[in-house]
Amino acid sequence: MYQRILFAVDGGAASRDAIPVVAAYARAWGAAVGVFHVRGIDRRGPDAEGEDLVESFVDAFSKAGVMAGGAVDLVRGENVADAIARVATRDEADLVAVGSRGRSDLGAMFLGSVSHRVALYLDLPVLVVRLAPGAEADVKRVLVAVDGSPASDEAVASATEVARATGAEVHVLHVQQLVAAEGATLVETDEEALAILRRALAQLRAGGLSGRAEAVVSHGVAAAVVAEAERLRADLVILASRRPSDITGLLLGSVAHQVIHRLRSPVLLAARASNGARARAAASGLRVHP
């Protein structure tokens, strides 16, 4: 259960639009929200600008019935993702939330290329909020994409926590990706796909929940996830995190990038699978994808 949400904001509309969603989750979980704004010390403008911005967000959360506090971080030579990771670690946040409208906002900056240190620090789940106009903030249908990996198990665990708190329906999706290799097209067998879905459903049942499961065949995982989310009118999509440890890698895998860019619904990137989770998965005798 998430008890401390770090909401990284800027002055754009995306952050404002994300308030109802973050507030709805905070109320469901009984969580407190820490509003955080990064401000470069060489930036021109009144010193109180950042404080006024944060105060306006804190006030909005208070009016929404959510306990909130805020802070402005003055930085020099540190990017947004570095500052978010540092503060999230310092404040022992359970979840990091950002608003996103496209490639130029805070969400895009957070999802861009970052240092090795940030990739290591941010094992936390990340909620990226991008809403269609008029969309509801409440969670009634959750779509969780699975692939049988320990990271995918973390995604199902997150879906379980969300459904327990909100009463949402859980839909499990596995994409059997078509892969072209040496003039032939390869695809995972139906038996393998069924085993992955059964694994996810068993995890849900262990958490006291039921869910619906489906496998689809597609050339693109992200496209299939987006299509299914739109068909279901999912209020939240949960994805496993692929966070490489090399300094040249992206914080998030390409599937997450594409889904967030194309889907106008909140996306929750589950916590990165721990070594312990990987060991338990391997010991279970189930096939584990890297």
Strand coverage percent:
15-25%
What fold name goes in the CATH topology slot of the largest domain?
A: Rossmann fold
Helix and strand composition category = alpha/beta
Largest sheet: 10 strands, mixed
Number of domains as seen in the coordinates:
2
Number of helices: 10
The count of strands amounts to: 12
The appropriate CATH architecture of the largest domain is 3-Layer(aba) Sandwich
CATH class of the largest domain: Alpha Beta
Chain-wise SSE layout:
Layout: E1 4-9, H1 13-29, E2 32-40, H2 49-63, E3 68-75, H3 80-90, E4 95-99, H4 106-111, H5 116-121, E5 126-129, E6 141-145, H6 150-166, E7 169-177, E8 179-181, E9 184-186, H7 190-206, E10 212-218, H8 221-232, E11 236-239, H9 254-262, E12 267-269, H10 275-283
Helix pairs in contact: 8-9
Short description:
The chain has 290 residues and is of the alpha/beta class.
